[in-house]
Design brief:
Elements (H helix, E strand, L loop, with lengths): L1 H24 L3 H21 L3 H21 L5 H24 L6 H22 L10 H8 L6 E8 L2 E7 L7 H15 L6 E5 L6 E6 L25 E6 L4 E4 L14 E4 L6 H13 L4 E6 L16 E3 L3 H23 L34 E6 L2 H8 L5 H6 L5 E7 L9 H5 L3 E5 L6 H4 L2 H5 L14 E5 L12 E3 L7 H14 L5 H11 L67 H17 L4 E2 L5 H7 L3 H14 L2 E3 L6 E3 L7
Parallel strand pairs: 7-11, 7-12, 8-9, 8-10, 10-11
Antiparallel strand pairs: 1-2, 2-4, 3-4, 5-6, 5-14, 12-13, 13-14, 15-17, 16-17
Helix pairs in contact: 2-4, 2-5, 3-4, 4-5, 9-16
């Protein structure tokens, strides 16, 4: 019984070993079966086509076609597998053609078959052994990743590895997957790779709905803030790129304002958007210092925050106002300056602003003279109109206050920059938003992403809502001149600390001495609209002089010193004037003060307008006359009547805002 049992165990063990060996050998049999099949087919073909010239030609062409088809079919596999497959097919078809025409045992064909066939079969066995193990065949890392995120049938193609950047071509399953599927899977890919959401982007192909490039940036090079060390190109042209920070792969973050027909770039208006704490102020300073360091540009600035961030740069601006009536005047002036500048450029044969336009016109090709000679006109520098905290301005002037300016300014060599926290449609009209296609989008509420960035850029993986106010200075930039593949790449602006104040003041001094000044056309158009409210850049300001007068006691006021202008001519010893009709009228329940004659009314109101004009307050309404009414004892209805009379006489002209009037400068025709 023991002997029987031992024999049974031996037979069972032998059977198990054989089964195991057969199981292990089966995956390696196909190459050998292929070699055997080529030998059989070649021998059989010799019996049929041994003496046929046409068959020889056909077999040769078939071998070439089969090799080419193999190469084409392997385009989505690895380069090594594609080459190996093509060599195998070429060798097998060449031997079969020779065997069919000359016979399998002729010349070197037998030796070639035995040695070459063995080498080819073994090469495939070795290839298979290197990529398999005792367990079931495992997926490659990239295929496993795609399977996890729902893109199992997608194919990873050519991969380009750069410092801190991996770009892989991606081909999706035709008819089953689209580029939108990749956009929805980006956050899952970032999760699988344990990376932030902004580190994974997808750039769809413009020529295919199922192909694109997957970009992965494994290390965030923006984590450490970079302090501002000064402008990138001091004394250069505004046509040169403006460097405002760096991208997450370390390359510089650059934008452009003027257009350049040589590279097909249009002039840009910018929207700077970001929530509280997102670094919007530093982003503005980066762009502003770059602009002010160039030699052929002027800037107008409206800042309702009283230049809180920009005071060290104040001398460098051509015109700066704090908001309110000053901003109203600036907007009115822009609306008249733009067509004046456009007309000058057209007369001098500039289709758009160019650096040559900022220089004296000594080229006959850019002359306004009728005789064809150089006109010698002063040049016209580029112009930037910057509206900081524009939500205040939009509430005051209406949500389409900048629409006309944005639509017409580019042809006049003017860029409009609008900065606000939330560019939603309840603050800014759709027409104005459409006129500001270039954007610097900083951290924001996730619900506001669509107000800052185009939907196509968000689909590529740009999500400023993921930052909020936790990463100040992080931004996405969409603008002409930037490769669209960069739109979804995060960047970070440089940081301005207290150490930057001294350098900013130095930059402002440089701009006063060396920067451009407004040309006669811009100056004339501005002054014609708002008079001396437009100051131009002042070069005679002594920054050391105090700007306020210290408080003094009443006892210190003597000999007319420090008195209000209206009280300076009063004689304290003179008798009071006799009572006049209306002086005893009650103060409440009816209009206050005595009624002036029509002649007195016109004279007094004209004097008030002159006072406003002298003070540079060129946009007025009834509310601006409240102090004047109290001082001169006139009622608000009386002022409203006088405003209408002055408009009829041409001294005032209505603005886009109801109840607001622009003063027509006294020396300018209405």
């Amino acid at each position: 019984m023991n002997r029987t049992t031992d024999q049974h165990t031996i037979r069972r063990g032998s059977s198990g070993v054989g089964t195991y060996l057969l199981h292990r050998a089966m995956p390696h049999l196909p190459p050998w079966l292929g070699v055997a099949g080529v030998g059989i087919v070649g021998s059989g073909a010799h019996l049929v086509w041994a003496d046929s010239v046409g068959a020889g030609v056909g077999l040769t062409l078939s071998a070439v076609a089969l090799t080419g088809a193999t190469w084409w079919a392997g385009r989505e596999t690895s380069p090594q597998r594609r080459l190996h497959s093509a060599i195998t097919v070429a060798a097998g078809s060449a031997w079969m053609t020779g065997a069919a025409l000359a016979g399998p045992l002729s010349g070197i064909l037998p030796d070639t078959y035995l040695m070459g066939g063995t080498v080819l079969a073994l090469s495939w066995n070795i290839r298979m052994a290197l990529r398999t193990s005792d367990s079931a065949p495992a997926e490659s890392a990239d295929k496993g990743l795609l399977a996890k995120v729902g893109l199992a049938r997608a194919m990873i193609g050519r991969t380009q590895v750069e410092p801190n950047r991996v770009t892989a071509a991606l081909a999706l399953e035709g008819g089953e997957q689209t580029n939108d599927d990749v956009a929805r899977a980006l956050v899952r890919i970032a999760s699988a790779l344990d990376l932030p959401q902004s580190a994974v982007r997808y750039q769809p192909s413009a020529d295919s709905a199922r192909r694109g490039e997957l970009v992965i940036v494994p290390r965030d090079m923006l984590a450490e803030p970079q302090e501002w060390a000064g402008p990138s190109t001091p004394g250069g042209s505004i046509m040169d790129p403006l460097v405002i920070g760096q991208y997450d792969d370390g390359s510089p973050l650059m934008v452009w304002l003027p257009g350049d027909p040589d590279v097909g770039r249009n002039a840009s208006h910018f929207l700077i958007a970001g929530g509280t704490g997102s670094g919007k102020g530093d982003a503005a300073l980066n762009l502003m210092t770059e602009i002010l360091s160039r030699s052929d540009v002027i800037m107008w600035l409206s800042d309702p925050k009283a230049f809180q961030d920009f005071r060290p740069l104040l001398p460098a601006y051509d015109w700066a106002v704090e908001g309110g009536a000053g901003t109203e005047a600036m907007v009115e002036a822009l609306q008249h300056v733009i067509p004046a500048r456009t007309g000058w450029l057209g007369k001098h044969s500039y289709r758009q602003w160019a650096p040559e336009a900022a220089e004296q016109q000594t080229d006959p090709a850019h002359s306004c003279a009728s005789d064809g000679k150089a006109c010698g006109c002063p040049g016209m520098p580029y112009m930037v109109a910057w509206m900081e905290e524009a939500a205040n301005t939009l509430r005051q002037l209406g949500d389409d206050a900048f629409t006309g300016i944005a639509q017409e300014a580019r042809s006049a060599g003017v860029s409009l920059i609008v900065s606000l926290q939330r560019p939603s449609y309840d603050q800014m009209s759709t027409s104005t938003r459409a006129s500001l296609p270039s954007v610097i989008a900083l951290g924001c509420d996730p619900r506001d992403e669509g107000f800052s960035l185009p939907e196509s850029v968000i689909d590529q993986g740009a999500h400023p809502g993921a930052w909020g106010n936790r990463k100040p200075g992080y931004c996405y930039v969409v603008s002409g001149g930037i490769d669209p593949e960069r739109y979804a790449s995060p960047g970070r602006t440089q940081q301005f600390t207290v150490r930057a104040v001294s350098l900013m003041e130095t930059l402002a001094e440089w701009a006063v001495r060396n920067g451009a000044t407004a040309d006669p056309i811009t100056t004339g158009a501005a002054k014609a609209v708002v008079g001396n409210a437009y100051t131009g850049r002042r070069t005679d300001i002594d920054e050391t002089e105090p700007t306020t007068v210290p408080d003094q006691d009443d006892e210190q006021l003597h000999d007319g010193a420090q008195l209000d202008p209206e009280d300076a001519a009063m004689d304290p010893e003179a008798d009071l004037p006799p009572a006049q009709q209306g002086d005893d009228a009650p103060l409440f329940g009816q209009e206050t003060g005595r009624k002036p004659s029509p002649e007195e009314a016109r004279e007094l109101f004209a004097q008030a307008l002159n006072e406003f004009e002298a003070a540079g307050k060129m946009v007025v309404g009834p509310k601006d006359f409240m102090d004047w009414c109290d001082r001169n004892q006139y009622s608000r209805p009386w002022v409203s009547e006088r405003l209408r009379d002055a408009a009829a006489e041409g001294r005032l002209t209505p603005t886009n805002q109801t109840g607001r009037w622009r003063i027509v400068p006294a020396l300018t025709p209405a």
